[in-house]
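Researcher: I'd like a candidate sequence for this fold, 479 residues long. If you have to choose between options at a position, lean toward the conservative one.
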């Protein structure tokens, strides 16, 4: 047990996205009512969870879908009195730039036969492969329920899936699936389009984020009625944290004398507000924004040893909402009435200027069933670069409104991957390193709980709760 027993006075959370708002919520749970928690946010609470208005209705422009086993997000929705709505699926087609290599049917049995015919047992084996990974991944909830925490992302992943999980960070999903004897055809025509849709990158992304994408293609997906960002505002409200509108510029360690005479270690956080540059001191700081010069460009002053620089790039994604009619002949269908796909995925082809496109429903009408693709509908197009007028003209036979959102969306994955540290300094924690394993809402929530538990156990010197080996076996016998 350590020397510091009194509760901390003030905690700063930098960033009000799902990571920061969940951190505020879990920090409140752990440290209790006495601590003052401030969330410093430079833009809107929600961060990469945001809606965009098209034709008077809101649509998810950032993080949109959740897995049925994303248990933190499920718990938040229940706790905050929000509603989960199923993501309505449309018929999917996989387009290779010349033709559709796979066309989903509305008949389940036809799909099974088509998949078997083209890919043999690959789809079934993939399902089992992903379930095995998901099973191990689910161990995190048990560890966190028992208050255990990890001081690095690698240790966290190792505690879930041993060397198999850490190895997945060092190889591409292509290599991982080839080693598991999946066919090239299946990887190129089914796995790659999923990666392109979800992470805007092909099968060269790391095996772990690849497996997360494949889990994200399972059934039972859902989203939050009214918009996923409602979870962030709800969590901040529930945590009774104060939101300060400002851009954090720098963080610096300071030692101040206490009234008792002993020195106390604090962090000076300097931020820019509408009223000018100001700042405050905090006992604990949690950074819940990507430390990248193009995103949260924070200077760490006078740290010894210095806080390392994280220069790895984030991947640009452009989300374009188009209210219009699809030009089905672009996809080789001269007769629009024969075109039934409301979700189009693409294989790797340099000629293609889009990653995917699909018909979407407004956040208030989630779960009500989508429009037919040939009707006037709102299409959500994912691409690496902004679409030109000419490209929009190729994709749509007519359209009346276009809304664009540009994101530095998620890490540009390039294995072997090393996740940035969680502990940047004594009581300075960083959540977004986990994104280098996989970027998803639930991953940020897991990182937030892990950081809150870590901050708590390190503050009170509970070393036995941190980085425990063989937790899975230990907790099995604890039942
Ligand atoms: C287009 C898109 C689609 C996605 N789809 C899905 C999906 O379907 N399912 C899923 O699970 N995930 C999805 N994701 C990923 C998911 O949205 C992110 O992993 C998650 O939202 C990250 O949350 P975060 O709180 O960690 O970071 P952010 O949401 O980025 O939050 C960081 C916050 O910090 C603020 N900030 C940054 N710098 C500073 C500073 N210096 N001072 C003060 N504030 C600062 C930012 O304004 C931001 O609000 C998607 C992401 C994108 C972009
Ligand atoms: C963390 C675990 C175990 C599962 C998460 C699975 C999941 C829901 C992954 C989705 C990740 C993601 C970045 C999706 C982006 S785009 C999705 C789609 N094109 C859309 O916008 O609807």
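Model: Candidate sequence:
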């Amino acid at each position: 047990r350590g020397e510091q027993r009194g509760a901390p006075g003030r905690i700063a959370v930098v960033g009000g996205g799902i990571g920061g708002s969940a951190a505020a919520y879990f920090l409140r749970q752990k440290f209790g009512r006495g601590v003052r928690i401030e969330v410093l946010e430079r833009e809107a609470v929600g961060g990469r969870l945001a809606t965009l208005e098209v034709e008077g209705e809101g649509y998810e422009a950032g993080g949109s879908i959740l897995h049925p086993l994303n248990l933190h997000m499920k718990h938040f929705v229940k706790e905050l009195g929000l509603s989960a709505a199923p993501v309505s699926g449309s018929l999917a087609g996989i387009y290779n730039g010349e033709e559709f290599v796979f066309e989903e049917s509305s008949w389940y049995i036809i799909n099974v036969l088509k998949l078997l015919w083209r890919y043999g047992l690959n789809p079934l084996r993939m399902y089992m492969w992903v379930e095995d990974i998901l099973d191990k991944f689910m161990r995190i909830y048990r560890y966190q329920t028992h208050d255990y925490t990890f001081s690095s992302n690698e240790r966290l992943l190792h505690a879930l899936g041993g060397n198999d999980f850490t190895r997945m960070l060092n190889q591409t999903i292509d290599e991982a699936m080839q080693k598991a004897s999946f066919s090239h055809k299946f990887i190129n025509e089914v796995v790659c389009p999923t990666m392109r849709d979800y992470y805007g990158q092909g099968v060269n992304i790391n095996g772990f984020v690849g497996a997360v994408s494949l889990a994200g293609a399972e059934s039972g997906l859902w989203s939050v009625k009214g918009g996923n960002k409602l979870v962030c505002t709800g969590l901040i409200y529930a945590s009774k944290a104060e939101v300060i509108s400002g851009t954090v510029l720098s963080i610096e360690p300071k030692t101040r004398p206490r009234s008792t005479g002993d020195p106390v270690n604090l962090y000076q956080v300097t931020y820019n507000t509408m009223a000018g540059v100001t700042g405050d001191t905090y006992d604990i700081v949690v950074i819940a924004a990507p430390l990248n010069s193009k995103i949260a460009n924070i200077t760490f002053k006078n740290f010894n040893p210095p806080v390392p620089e994280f220069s790895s790039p984030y991947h640009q994604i452009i989300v374009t909402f188009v209210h219009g009619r699809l030009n089905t002949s672009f996809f080789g269908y001269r007769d629009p009435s024969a075109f039934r796909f409301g979700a189009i995925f693409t294989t790797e082809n340099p000629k293609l200027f889009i990653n995917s496109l699909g018909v979407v429903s407004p956040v208030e009408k989630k779960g009500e069933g989508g429009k037919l693709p040939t009707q006037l509908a709102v299409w959500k197009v994912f691409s690496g670069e902004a679409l030109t007028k000419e490209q929009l003209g190729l994709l749509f036979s007519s359209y009346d409104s276009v809304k664009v959102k540009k994101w530095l969306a998620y890490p540009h994955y390039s294995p072997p991957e090393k996740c940035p540290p969680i502990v940047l300094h004594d009581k300075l924690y960083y959540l977004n390193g986990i994104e280098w394993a996989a970027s998803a809402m639930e991953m940020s929530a897991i990182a937030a709980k892990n950081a809150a538990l870590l901050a708590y156990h390190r503050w009170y010197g509970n070393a036995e709760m941190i980085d425990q080996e063989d937790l899975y076996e230990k907790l099995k016998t604890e039942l």
